[in-house]
Design a protein that fits this description.
The complex is a heterodimer of chains A (about 550) and B (about 325).
Chain A lengths: L1 H22 L3 H7 L7 H9 L6 E6 L14 H10 L4 E3 L6 E3 L2 E6 L5 E6 L13 H10 L7 H7 L10 E8 L2 E6 L6 H5 L9 H7 L13 E7 L3 E6 L12 E6 L3 H10 L4 E2 L4 H9 L3 E5 L4 E7 L10 H10 L2 H5 L6 E3 L22 H11 L5 E8 L9 H13 L3 E8 L1 H10 L4 E7 L6 H8 L18 H12 L3 H18 L2 E7 L2 E5 L2 E2 L15 E2 L1
Chain B lengths: L1 H9 L1 H18 L4 H6 L5 H10 L6 H13 L13 H36 L4 H15 L2 H15 L22 H7 L3 H38 L2 H8 L4 H29 L3 H6 L5 H10 L3 H29 L7
């Protein structure tokens, strides 16, 4: 009996092993197997052991990259890595969003603003050894028009099924190292847009070789070469010795996934990582007090706001009510929920962008004034409205639920009953895009460092279509629309600044939003790390940073 | 007994169908759009629609379910919507991590739990009994994320004894065969990797073991106390058998059935993904994988993983049932 039972046990156990083994087919072998050919092992070994003289930079973060093909992703964690591997035609300067040469050395625009000609570098090779030429640029731009998965191309250039190229009519190699874009309409933010990480130029050979798996085997021209990706664990990059720009000071960069914020901070304290993002607010002070650590605050290119649905039948259609709500909320108090990482917002775009209108005066906190405005509008006896909020924190709004409750309490003072509707992120987005809300929290992180990317995207009537609204206040103002449209085609920078300043005044007066804050998300970095300069776009190449 | 096992395996089929229906409906009932989670908040409606079409998300639910089950029937778990990789290979690289952690934790839990339970029962109301049982109560009520963070703080930050997270240091080379790192390092006679993997396993293993250990200890104690009152124990003692023999041969064996049940259940739970432990200790296992998939509405991943876990759970229970016959010959499974 005993023997038989043992036998059976063995059988069942084998069965279980088979189930498990059936899952693990050879696919994982190629992701795991590659680590044997990683170069620089000696360097990384010495780096792991010693604390000084280390040439490996380990960056800890909360989530893994989704794909390492920047043209297909929107998550910051993917871009963080691809920013090291790829170059764009032009790039942002180190600390701001002004555009400087990268793969292209110079460029010119035709008088009508429709033709852009770029001179390319002739000394660049991809990490796979192939030469970079104008044809490669054409290849990449044509690839991005091939489907919906190239999110940013579609979104930035207005591509659709009928018009897959969007505003880019054609891209031609007009020389070995010269490429010419023909646009269907003048587009002032075009250059700024080309600097965005999603438009990193990839090696056509590698794309053809890897096909569907290209996103796991990225090949660019950037300061670091992709080595290995252990999913949910780490991504390893090594220095590109032949980089045409500033050669990296560290030999290896490792991005490590440490999901828990607290655990990640402890790893930083214990020294197993060199830098991290996504800190718990309560850890910031501790990091500041720590001799071995420094806090670096990323200048914000974002805004959080409470949009007021001007399209829905009800009190919020009335400008006076919206202004009253702006007056009735104590922004200073609200910002205490940001635990020191928020600056109050008065405009829809952050002050780090050119064109910011500092002359706009915020409404300020004035309950009496709010009450009298409400009375004028006929709502002195009170009203009740909904406030939609997401349940999870966002980079621009760390505690949405508490913020909603605070606003609920403050608006009680002026007889406004607020019903809070809390949804998980996806559902929150679809609800607000559909205009189900009276008021709703949302925020925006800039893409290309151009005011158009805030004002047009978030507040123009073109973007107030139900179901896909970027303008979730459904705010429609023709005067503003004309200004924003004009600014899109105006190539004179100074005139553009004037137009955007005017736009901000109109928006302030109409008050479709209660602008909340611009955040400065902190990074905690070891003191040994020098020259870590955070970029407003949310990630930066690591070729400048040094380890002492 | 063979008949019994075959019967149990056949009964897996309705379980699979039931679980798949539940998993499928739950995932589709929860609001949220996979296309949106792939393309991000900045995608246009046209882009979303194109992707939904491409992923067949516009088909009626019944068709989607049919497609999914049709693939399952041929052994194809489908492809992840998000990463486009086959779910089988993705689970395959993560399941061993979870299994290794679970086996390690359960070994700790069973050895310490049973021993503590036996001693506590034999020396009822002694200081050891009181201490270990209040310890067990403490263990059951301990939030694992808190315990985990405290362990990292103590052993990694303050004392610097153990690595805070991951499965293996980055600079250690290990040829993967089974993907159970301890086993692989033994198979390839790689001492450095074994020590490194063991050091990485220690903290998450202990953290994960706390709750099952406490439950097992309490269960063993109460079960032992009951058995110790039986006549045959008195007889065994009376005929002068050595105390240890009575306790381990006569008493523990008879007391072990309920303990075994608890062990089986706990084992199943842990395999199903020790989400919190995996999160705190950055352990790249199945638990985190499923949670991420749920958050991004990656339907095929969630559905298939839940199925696999359900099957493993059933198999673990089956093993437990077979073990009953080993410990108690009176039990007949047929």
């Amino acid at each position: 009996m005993k023997k038989k039972a043992l036998w059976m046990l063995l059988t069942v156990f084998t069965l279980m092993v088979l189930v498990v083994a059936g899952c693990s087919n050879n696919d994982e072998a190629n992701s795991e197997g590659e680590d044997s050919n990683s170069q620089d092992t000696t360097d990384s070994e010495s780096a792991e052991e010693g604390s000084g003289g280390s040439s490996t930079f380990v960056f800890g973060r909360g989530a893994d990259s989704e794909q390492l093909d920047p043209s297909k992703v929107t998550d910051g964690e993917s871009i963080y890595v691809t920013n090291q591997i790829y170059d764009t035609l032009v790039r942002y300067e180190q600390e701001g969003t002004e555009v400087v040469p990268a793969l292209a050395t110079e460029w010119e625009t035709s008088d009508d603003g429709l033709e852009w000609t770029f001179q390319l570098r002739d000394d660049v090779t991809f990490h796979d050894g192939t030469d970079f030429t104008a044809e490669d640029v054409v290849f990449n731009f044509e690839r991005w028009t091939e489907g919906a998965e190239y999110v940013y191309y579609g979104y930035m250039f207005g591509a659709s099924e009928e018009n897959p190229g969007g505003i880019i009519e054609k891209v031609e190699a007009t020389g070995d190292y010269e490429v010419t874009f023909t646009l269907s309409e003048p587009n002032a933010p075009f250059l700024n847009t080309l600097a965005m990480p999603p438009f990193g130029i990839a090696s056509p050979d590698a794309i053809e070789e890897h096909g569907e798996d290209y996103f796991k085997n990225p090949v660019g021209t950037g300061p670091f070469i992709f080595e290995e990706w252990k999913q949910d664990d780490s991504i390893t990059l090594s220095k590109n010795e032949d980089y045409f720009g500033e050669t990296a000071k560290v030999d290896t960069v490792i991005f490590r996934v440490i999901p828990d914020n607290g655990a990640r901070f402890m790893e930083l304290q214990s020294g197993s990582i060199d830098a991290m993002n996504g800190m718990n607010p309560q850890d910031i002070q501790q990091a500041e007090d720590d001799e071995a650590l420094q806090i670096i605050r990323r200048p914000s290119m974002n805004v959080s706001y409470m949009a007021m649905n001007t399209d829905k039948e009800g009190p919020l259609k009335d400008k006076k009510v919206r202004q009253a709500i702006n007056l009735a909320i104590d922004k200073e108090k609200l910002l205490s929920l940001f635990e020191g990482i928020g600056k109050p917002a008065k405009n829809p775009m952050p002050p780090s962008l050119w064109g910011y209108n500092d002359n706009v005066e915020d409404y300020g906190y004035d309950v009496e004034e709010a009450k009298s405005l409400l009375a004028e509008a006929g709502y002195g006896d009170g009203m009740s409205i909904t406030l939609y909020t997401m349940s999870n924190p966002r980079p621009y709004l760390p505690q949405p639920k508490f913020a909603a409750q605070a606003i609920q309490e403050m608006l009680k003072e002026v007889n406004i009953e607020v019903e809070i509707v809390e949804n998980e992120w996806d559902s929150h987005l679809s609800a607000t895009e559909n205009g189900d809300h009276d008021m709703a929290f949302l925020g925006w992180t800039g893409d290309n460092g151009d005011p158009d990317n805030f004002l047009y995207v978030l507040l123009d009537k073109d973007n107030a279509k139900k179901g896909s609204a970027g303008n979730i206040a459904f705010y429609k103002n023709d005067e503003l629309h004309d200004i924003l449209k004009q600014a899109q085609t105006e190539l004179d920078q100074e005139k553009r600044v004037g137009l955007y300043e005017e736009a901000q005044e109109i928006i302030h007066e109409d008050a479709p939003w209660f602008p909340i804050a611009h955040t400065t998300p902190p990074l905690a970095v070891k003191k040994e790390v020098q020259n870590y300069i955070p970029h407003p776009t949310g990630s930066e190449p690591f070729n400048y940073l040094e380890l002492n | 007994m063979l008949n019994y096992i075959i019967r149990r395996l056949v009964s897996l089929i309705p379980v699979i169908i039931g679980v798949s229906i539940i998993a499928f409906s739950l995932m589709h009932l929860v609001p949220g759009d996979p296309a949106r989670s792939i393309l991000g908040e900045k995608a246009t409606e046209t882009q979303l629609e194109m992707l939904r079409e491409e992923l067949n998300l516009n088909d009626p639910y019944i068709v989607q379910y049919g497609n999914f089950m049709g693939k399952i029937a041929t052994g194809d778990l489908g492809d992840s919507i998000k990463s486009k990789e086959s779910v089988a290979s993705e689970i395959g690289s993560r399941l061993p991590a979870t299994i290794e952690l679970t086996l390690f934790a359960m070994t700790i839990a069973v050895v310490i739990g049973v021993l503590a339970g036996v001693i506590a029962a034999v020396k009822q109301y002694s200081w050891f009994d009181n201490l270990s049982m209040s310890g067990a109560l403490f263990g059951v009520s301990m939030p694992i994320f808190w315990l985990g963070l405290m362990m990292i703080w103590l052993f990694s930050v303050e004392l610097n004894w153990l690595p805070p997270s991951g499965r293996l240091s980055n600079d250690i080379e290990l040829t993967k065969i089974t993907n159970l790192y301890l086993v692989d390092s033994i198979l390839t006679l790689n001492g450095t990797a074994f020590v490194d993997a063991f050091r990485h396993l220690l903290m998450p293993g202990l953290a994960l073991a706390t709750i099952p250990m406490a439950i097992i200890a309490r269960m063993t104690r109460s079960s032992m106390l009951e058995v110790m009152k039986q006549d045959y124990i008195r007889t065994a003692n009376a005929k002068g058998l050595a105390g240890r023999l009575v306790i381990f041969q006569h008493a523990l064996k008879n007391a072990s059935l309920p303990v075994l049940t608890v062990i089986g259940l706990q084992f199943g739970f842990l395999l199903g993904g020790a989400v919190l432990t995996e999160t705190i200790f950055s352990w790249p296992g199945v638990g985190r994988y499923v949670v991420d998939a749920i958050l991004s509405r990656d339907y095929p991943v969630v559905q298939s993983t839940i199925l696999i876990i359900a099957i493993i759970f059933v198999l673990v229970n089956l093993i437990t049932d077979i073990l009953y016959t080993l410990f108690d010959p009176r039990i007949k499974l047929d």
